[in-house]
Predict the structure.
Amino acid sequence: MLKRIETLSRLFALAAGASVALLAVLICLDIGARSLLNVSLQGTDELGGYVLAFAGSCGLAYTLLHKGHPRIDIALSHLPRRGQNPAHVLAQGTLAAMAIFMTWHAAGELLQTIRFGAVTNTPLQTPLWVPQGLWALGCGVFALTTITTTLHAIWLMVQAPEKVSLFYGPMTVSEEVEEFMETPHGEARS
C-alpha cells in the first residue's frame, strides 16, 4: 500500500510542479505584455493564488513520505529507545488527525460552494468549486497518506520495532548530508 501511496504522491507533486511552472510562464507573459504592449493579461494574480493553494496541498503527501515536514525533536533524543517508537507513532497519528481535519473542512467548503454555485467576484468569474476541488483533492491525498503511514507505523511497532525510527524518525544529520550530496540520478557529486 505504501508503494501505491508513494506513486500517487509523486504524481501529485509533479502536477504541483507543472502548475507552478505554467504559472511562471504566465507571469512572464504578463510582464512582457505590460512592458511591451501596455496590456495586462487579466487574472494572473488570481490564478497564482489558486496554483499556490493547489501546489501546497498536493505537495503535502510527497513531503511527508520524504521526511520533509519539520519536526521538533529536542526531547526525542533524550528518550530511551523504547520510548522513541511510541513517540514516532504518536507523531504520525497526530498528523493524520490534522490531515483528516483539513480534508473534512476542505470538503465541507467545497460542498457549500457547489450548493450555492459560488463564483469569484473578479473579472475571471471563476467557479470556486474548481480551485476548492483541487485543494480538497490534495488534502484528501494527504489524509490518505497520513492514515496509511500511521497504520504502517503501528504495524512496524508490533512486527519490527527496530524499523520504526528508520521509516518515521526524523532525518539524521548523516541522512541529510547524504541526501544533499546525491544528484537527481543517484550518483555522488565529484
Observations:
- The chain has a mean pLDDT of 86.
